[in-house]
């Protein structure tokens, strides 16, 4: 067992939920703070559906792609700032206070957006929401971690991840529910104010993190909370380890208040924790998760599904699988360990991205041909200008298929109208506009503008589903869990904020580059790049991420001080005392790297 702190008997999952009658106070703490995760997921997921109706109400948004991108991305930009500010506020004013501030930002953002009279007000509201998302993304799991028994800490922090994915799934359902309601997008965006009010009320009735209280010299309050969280047999040990941790910090720096970037860099324990924590957050985004979550309808269309309704319905499936994966994580996180779950997750992600790469390569290289007869079936003015000029040139302009039609350069965008006899047969290359689309549909044909008809479309859906199934339980939740427990108490807020900020910066970079990459190098090459980054992520996890399963938070710091390179992560580890010689020095084979 890692660190020899606890023995796992396979009942952690049952023990977590048995708290509902044995110690409901712990579950109350976890789920109250976890509502921040629900808001995080909802506000990042709801905009995909709301934007369709915002474009209908505001012509300026409909005409300007950059304005649509700004409305979407301002939440991510706000989250970068919110995560950075949250790291400071959690250390200065407390974890609970930071959650309350995040709730206010969620509420204010929802009200501003729901009452927007123009795109500028929408952008302001998205910034408010983003600030709340950034603060909640690092503060909620930190609060849960510090208020949870070590034995089931991973499972309880995983509830925050489940509520994030559950919030995204709820956003898709809310979008569907309000599609025919007056105000449509106003209801979609305004609903987020309700859980913010609920969490604000719940958190007012809950205490501050006991470990933060102890750091601030409020020992009696901290001990009273710990006695409600831990059993009588465990509480004295936890209090003793907490005292030792704070005393060591005071001895080391002479003050328990000063925290600087220089101190973080100079302290080997913190530096090692930051490498693991920040690296995991960055790789969580670089393996491409938000290309799937933000653009899943687009990806489904790229795979050959023409209908918007079909694409939205299938994207709901991926969102549901993401939420299901979070439940799986709750069961396995304290059973298999953080590192093993990360490795299994990344191996599956790599295989899934390999499937997607192969499917999209076949889709683009074996798309239906463009038929001159099928194109001539429609009015000549509807023919794609690039195809017309190519056909009239000497030599006929070479072979044209659906892929070349959709990528045709010129004054007009072009679309592919599939054959009425079968979508895989040669079709027509026409100008892309609503009139032509309706004419194509009027003859019972399918109209394609993003992807081409393909017999491999369902394999793409399978690849997306496998990607989510493998990603969600491991890379989806474990980075947040590791960051909530890997840093010394003194630096936990600052380091957690730095890691969350890195996550959101990476999120913004990937989300903003995905569509550009698919247009520049193709969808298959884009997924191949994500696959290569996933291989790099696997190597990083094997070398740089320690196992923290079952360790009390204060014991994690001692483990980082020993800093072992253990590639055989699946093997049980001896008690820390067994790794020292008679004089208390580390043995050579486990010496720090």
CATH topology of the largest domain: Growth Hormone, Chain: A
Strand content: under 5%
**What is the radius of gyration?**
27 Å
CATH class of the largest domain: Mainly Alpha
- Counting structural domains, the number is 3
**What's the architecture of the largest domain in CATH terms?**
Up-down Bundle
The count of β-strands is 3
The average pLDDT score comes to 78
Order of helices and strands: HHHHHHHHHHHHHHHHHHHHHEEHEHHHHH
CATH homologous superfamily grouping of the largest domain: MFS general substrate transporter like domains
Strand order of the largest sheet: 2-1-3
Structural class: mainly alpha
Major sheet description: 3 strands, antiparallel
Fraction of residues in H or I helices: 55-70%
Point out poorly predicted stretches. Answer: 1-13, 575-593
Q: End-to-end distance, in Å?
A: 21 Å
Note the overall shape. Answer: elongated
Organism: Miscanthus lutarioriparius
Family: Belongs to the major facilitator superfamily. Sugar transporter (TC 2.A.1.1) family.
Subcellular location: Membrane
Pfam family, one: Sugar_tr
């Amino acid at each position: 067992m890692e660190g020899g702190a606890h023995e796992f008997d396979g009942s952690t999952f049952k023990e977590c939920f048995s708290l509902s009658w044995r110690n409901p106070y712990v579950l109350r703490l976890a789920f109250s703070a976890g509502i921040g995760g629900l808001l995080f997921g909802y506000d990042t997921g709801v905009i995909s559906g709301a934007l369709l109706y915002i474009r209908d109400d505001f012509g300026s948004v409909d005409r300007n792609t950059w304005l649509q991108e700004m409305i979407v991305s301002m939440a991510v930009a706000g989250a970068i700032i919110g995560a950075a500010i949250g790291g400071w506020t959690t250390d200065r004013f407390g974890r609970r206070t930071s959650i309350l501030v995040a709730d206010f930002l969620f509420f204010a953002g929802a009200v501003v957006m729901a009452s927007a009279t123009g795109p500028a007000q929408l952008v302001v509201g998205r910034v408010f929401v983003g600030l709340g998302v950034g603060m909640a993304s690092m503060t909620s799991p930190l609060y849960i971690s510090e208020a949870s028994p070590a034995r089931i800490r991973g499972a309880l922090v995983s509830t925050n991840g489940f509520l994030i994915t559950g919030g995204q799934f709820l956003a898709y359902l809310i979008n569907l529910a309000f599609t025919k309601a007056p105000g449509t997008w106003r209801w979609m965006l305004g609903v987020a104010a309700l859980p913010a009010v609920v969490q604000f009320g719940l958190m007012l009735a809950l205490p501050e993190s006991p470990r933060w209280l102890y750091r601030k010299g409020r020992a009696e309050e901290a001990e009273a909370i710990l006695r409600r969280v831990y059993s009588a047999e465990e509480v004295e040990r936890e209090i003793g380890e907490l005292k030792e941790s704070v005393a060591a910090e005071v001895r080391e720096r002479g003050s328990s208040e000063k925290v600087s970037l220089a101190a973080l860099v100079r302290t080997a324990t913190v530096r090692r924790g930051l490498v693991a924590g920040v690296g995991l957050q960055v790789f969580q985004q670089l393996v491409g998760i938000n290309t799937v979550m933000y653009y899943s309808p687009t990806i489904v269309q790229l795979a050959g599904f023409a209908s918007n309704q079909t694409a939205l319905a299938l994207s709901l499936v991926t969102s549901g699988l993401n939420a299901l994966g979070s439940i799986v994580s709750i069961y396995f996180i304290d059973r298999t360990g953080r590192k093993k779950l990360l490795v299994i997750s990344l191996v599956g992600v790599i295989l899934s991205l390999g499937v997607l790469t192969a499917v999209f390569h076949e889709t683009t290289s074996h798309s239906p041909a463009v038929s001159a007869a099928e194109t001539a079936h429609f009015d000549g003015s509807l023919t794609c200008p690039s195809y017309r000029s190519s056909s009239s040139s000497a030599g006929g302009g070479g072979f044209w298929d659906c892929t070349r039609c959709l990528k045709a350069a010129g004054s007009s965008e072009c679309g592919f109208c599939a054959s009425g006899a079968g979508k895989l047969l040669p079709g027509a290359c026409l100008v892309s506009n609503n009139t032509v689309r309706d004419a194509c549909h009027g003859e019972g044909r399918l109209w394609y503008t993003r992807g081409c008809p393909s017999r491999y479309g369902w394999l793409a859906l399978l690849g997306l589903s496998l990607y989510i199934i493998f990603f969600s339980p491991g890379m989806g939740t474990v980075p947040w869990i590791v960051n909530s427990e890997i840093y010394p108490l003194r630096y936990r807020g600052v380091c957690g904020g730095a890691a969350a900020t890195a996550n959101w910066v990476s999120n913004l970079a990937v989300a903003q580059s995905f569509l550009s990459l698919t247009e520049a190098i193709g969808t298959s090459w884009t997924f191949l790049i994500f696959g290569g980054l996933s291989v790099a992520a696997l190597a990083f996890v094997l070398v740089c991420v320690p196992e923290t399963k079952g360790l009390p938070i204060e014991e994690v710091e001692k483990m980082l001080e020993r800093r072992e390179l253990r590639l055989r992560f699946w093997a049980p580890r001896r008690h820390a005392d067994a790794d020292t010689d008679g004089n208390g020095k580390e043995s050579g084979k486990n010496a720090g790297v």
